[in-house]
Amino acid sequence: MTASGSPLLIALNRDARIATGPAGETTVELRRLEIACSGSAAAPVLERLANGGLPAADLFRFYCEDHGGDLLDCLALQHRLGEAGCLDYCLRIGGEEFARLTWLTGGEIFDQRRLDPSAAYRLSRFAYLRRLGERFILETPLGRARVELSPAAAAALFRLAQGMSAADLAAQMLLPDAATAQVFLALLANARALVAASGEQAEVEEKAPVGWWEFHDLLFHSRSRLGRHSNPYGGTFHRRSSDAPPSLLGAPTSHPRIALERPDLDRLKRTDPPFCAVAEARRSIRDYGPQAVTAAQLGEFLFRAARIQTLIPTGPDDLDYSFRPHPGGGAIHELVLYPVVGQAEGLARGLYRYDPLDHCLEALPCPAENIDRLLELAWITADRKSRPQIYFVLTARIGRLQWKYQSIAYAIVLKNVGALYQTMYLTATAMGLAPCALGGGDSEFFAQAAGLDGYGEAAVGEFMLGTRERALHA
Questions:
Q1: C-beta neighbour count of 108 within 10 angstroms
Q2: CB count, 10 Å around CB of 369?
C-alpha cells in the first residue's frame, strides 16, 4: 500500500523518452510518437513518473499543489499520455512490484472501474503466460496491453482458472486485502485477460464472432498484423549485424540429379488457351484419367510454375534474390517443392527435390514405406478419390524471411503458398492436367521422411497433380 492509501501507481512506459526542446518545451517520445507536454509542472511530473511512479490518487496533488500546475493542464497531460499508451499502471505490495500493466499501442485509456467489485471473474481462454527475462508476461490477442507478473502474481493468476472475486483472492491469502486484489483484477481486465465467471458477459468468448476463433488462429492474426502489439514489424533486417543471410538454394547435395524437359515458351505463347479461358476453367480435380503424368509433363509444369527466371545481383551482406513465375515475399522465395511420385511415366516412384535454378530433380533417399505413407495421406486428404500420381509437398526455408522480417515472416510464407498454389493451378489448367491444392498435411512426418529439422525448413503446403480425361483446349 502506498503512503496515500492507494495500491495503484502510475509510471511512464519504460521505453518512453523525455526530451526537452530548444525553447524549453517538454515532449515524450514512444513508438515513433512525439507527445507534447505543455504546462509548467509537466517536466517534474514526468521525471517522477519515469523514476518510481506516483500513486494514482496523488497525481493531481503532485501536479497542482506541489508544483503549482493547473488542474486542466494535469487532466490534459494524463489524457494525452494515456491515449498514446505512455502510462503504465503498477501494483506494488511490500515495496515490490507485484504486477504492471503496459500498453502495447495507444488508443485505449486505463479504466479502474471496468469491474464489478462484488462479481467473480476468470481468465480469458485467449490469455497466455510466457517468460520474459526474470518475469512472467500475461497477454491476450484480444487486448492492447500486457501484464508483467512477479512469481507471486503468477501463482495468484492460476487460481483464476475458476471464477473468483477480489474478496475470494484476499480470503485465500493470495493478496493482502480485497482492495489490493481489486487493483490486480483491474490490471488483468484492462489487458482483456478476464471474463465474467457467470451471466451474459461470460458467454462473449463462446459465441460468434469471438467465440468462433481458435486460440492459435486469433493469436497469429493479432501478432502478424498491426494494431494490438508493439513488436518490431516488417522488413527490419534485424539479423544483418549478427548472422549471414541464408543462401538462395541451401547447401549443395550429392544426390542423383535428373534433368527435366524445358518447354518452348515461344510456342506456348502461340498455342496456349487464352488466359481468361484458363482462369474460368480452373477447378480442383481429384479424379484422374487412365494415363499417368509423364516426366516431360512434370518438367514443363515445373518450368512454367516454379523455375528461377532471373537471378538478382546483391551485395555480400544481403540475401540472394530471384524472379520466378510466382511472387515470393520481396523476391526472397523461401519455398521449396518436393514432388512425391506415385505414378509417372518415365520417372521412378520416390521422393524428389526440385532445383529451380538448374531445372532438375534431386532423387532423395527415402524408404518405400515412407513414400507409401505420404501418398496415402495425400489420398485421404483428397477425399479418397484417385490414387495420387504426383504429390507436391511445399516447404519453407523460413530463415530467409526471418533474416529480414519481424512479426510477419510466417504470415508471408502462407501468402506465398497461396500465390504458388494459384500459379500451379493455372499452369496445370493450361496444360490440360488435373490440379488440386490440399488443406493440410503432416509436417512432422514429412520432416522425418525428407531428413529435415522441421524448423529451418518445414512443410507448409501440399498440392496434387494428375491427368484428366479432357484437356481445356480439347
A1: 16
A2: 9
2, pLDDT greater than 70: no
The residue ranges of every structural domain in the chain are: 8-224, 241-467
The backbone torsions φ and ψ at residue 329, rounded to the nearest 5 degrees and listed phi first, read 60, 55
Q: What is the DSSP string of 343-359?
A: SEETS-SEEEEEETTTT
Strand partners, 465: 390, 435
Alpha-carbon dihedral 346, 352, 357, 360, rounded to 10 degrees: -20
Q: Give the dihedral sign, CA 439/443/445/449.
A: positive
Whether residue 1 is predicted with pLDDT greater than 60 in this model: the reply is no
Dist. CA 144–CA 339, nearest whole Å: 43
Q: How many C-beta neighbours within 10 Å does residue 292 have?
A: 19
Dist. CA 338–CA 461, nearest whole Å? 10
CB neighbourhood size of 107 (10 A): 11
Grid cell digits, residue 109? 485509456
Cβ-based neighbours of 188, under 8 Å, separated by 6 or more:
121, 123, 138, 147, 157, 160, 194
pLDDT digits (tens, 9 = 90+) for 91-125: 999 889 999 999 999 989 999 888 998 999 999 99
How far is residue 266's CA from residue 271's CA, in Å, rounded to a whole number? 9
Strand partners, 354: 361
- Residue at grid coordinates 485465500: 172
Class of domain 241-467: alpha beta
Cα 395 from Cα 106, distance rounded (Å): 38
Report which residue type is found at 95. Answer: G
**pLDDT the model gives residue 461:** 99
φ and ψ at residue 171, rounded to 5 degrees? -65, -30
SS3 431: coil
Closest by Cα among 395, 461, 235, 427 to 331 = 235
Taking residues 204-214, report their average pLDDT. Answer: 92
Residue 455 C-alpha cell reads as 524448423
The β-bridge relationship of strands 321-323 and 310-312 is antiparallel
